[in-house]
Amino acid sequence: MNVSTVIRGGARAIAASRWLLARQRRGDVSVPATTVVQIEEQMRLAVGRVMAEGSLYDRTLAALAIKQAQGDLVEAAFLVRAYRTTLERIGSSEPVDTSRMRIERRVATTHRDASGGQMLGATYDYTHRLIDFALLADADPIAPLLPAADAPLATSFEPQLQQPMQQPSGAALLEADLLEPAGASGEPPCEPPDLTREPLTVPCRREQRLQALARADEGFLVGLAYSSMRGFGRVHPYITELVCGRVKVALVIPEIGEVVAIGEIEITECRTIHADTGASGRAPEFTRGYGLVLGAGERKAIAMAVLDRGLRARELGEDARYPAHDEEFVLMHADNIDASGLVQHLKLPHYVDFEAVSQMLQDLRRRYASAPSGDAE
Amino acid sequence: MQRREWMGVLARATPAEVDAAWQGHGLSPAFVWLRPPAFCLVMVRGRVNGNGAPFNLGEMSVTRCALQLDTGQMDQRYAGQRYVGLGYVAGRHKRHAALAALFDALLQEGGALAEQLLRTVAELDAKRRARHRHDAAMAATSKVDFTMQLSEVPAEYPMRGNSA
Lengths: 377, 164
Hints:
The structure holds two protein chains of two kinds.
Chain A: H1 11-26, H2 36-42, H3 44-54, E1 56-57, H4 59-68, H5 73-84, E2 89-92, E3 102-107, E4 118-119, H6 158-162, H7 170-175, H8 206-214, H9 218-230, E5 237-253, E6 258-276, E7 285-294, H10 298-310, H11 327-331, H12 336-344, H13 351-370, H14 373-376
Antiparallel strand pairs in A: 3-5, 5-6, 6-7
Helix pairs in contact in A: 2-4, 3-4, 3-5, 4-5, 8-10, 9-10
Chain B: H1 3-12, H2 15-23, E1 31-47, E2 54-69, E3 84-90, H3 94-109, H4 111-140, E4 143-144, E5 147-148, E6 159-160
Antiparallel strand pairs in B: 1-2, 2-3, 5-6
Helix pairs in contact in B: 1-3, 1-4, 2-3, 3-4
């Protein structure tokens, strides 16, 4: 029997708690308050994570949520998710064309001569991970000019811009017949499923999985992807392309029925290929994984692609023996708003539940004590 | 330039650019709101593998509005064709959407004013393209060509980066 209890009281304490929270958020008032625009400009990766996990692209709003949440990015994503429920959705964009992304960073790891080339962009990959005490000084100087010995700022890149980026390495693998085909590129007969409208159920389609993974907790995805690479899975990934950049968003304007560009968003895309030795009876080949994330979030995009491939186990005739290959395990536990809600509700009063469980244990203990000693073992 | 093109240019210019461009014309046309600027959401879609079936990636905030030029009852020139201007811009920027809608309405009217405004739109387009070229040139400074070198290379130089 479920009994619902209402805990009453506490209003004054709650008001005081919120007052304390506001004071704590502001910190020492002799220190200037952080502005939202500072967060938006200087905490780009935090903003990206909140947009991805809040599942809403709005840089200012994400920065504001980060400020309000004192930098707790999961709490900030929660604030963003709550805000989005207050707005009307007027439609869906045309699918973004990532082959026409304005690229800030592009990594291709399988071929030296990957068409389109590589650009390191701004990355921590090649830094020494030493704390930079210069940043501790009051002023944060603008990075000095590029050393003259390195490639100068050129002005002749325009022709490249007009060309869509070539898909790297895939062509060569396709020629060698080693890469699984990308699948039909035409429009499917129905609208893609939307888990904000119909709750996720398993088994589900790859489109649903990708939506769930795109808004999932980065830490959870990275941990699971790691587990599948360490031995609790068989994914053997290579990154054929990891790209950070901006894509145009276009929408059919309802009043005129025409597709119009309404803006540009920052996204991170990762394509992986995975050596499949044919253990499941299929021809040995490379299979594909795909990750796409709102904002800058390459660690998440890579993990998403690795997990996307892992979760295709059923489609590819494999056993889902490991957590990272198990749709229900991954998708039902990946949303950090859901997860932190259940975990954190433990902080609320549980007086009645606890009393009931205590009584049950006392009862069991009495039976245990009165049972013949042979049965107690 | 077609309507969807100028709408796209106005939406992708920065709010400050659109504001400055509008101020430059010193206009204050009378209009009525059909839909005052309001924040809303658009679901952004991606494609499986980048080119396959569409899937829902996540939403973005958008501001939209619709207005109609109010040309006055005495003015017969526009009888039956009071143009509706639409503003659809990414993010939460009511003024950006409103100015985009005013541009849109006046551009549809045609005539000398529309020609002037069209030149302004072309300038906004050029500014965006210039920004994009600058971004691309900045990123291109980090182009890299990792080369592989075999055993004749001294052990302390197993790899040479950025040789371009």
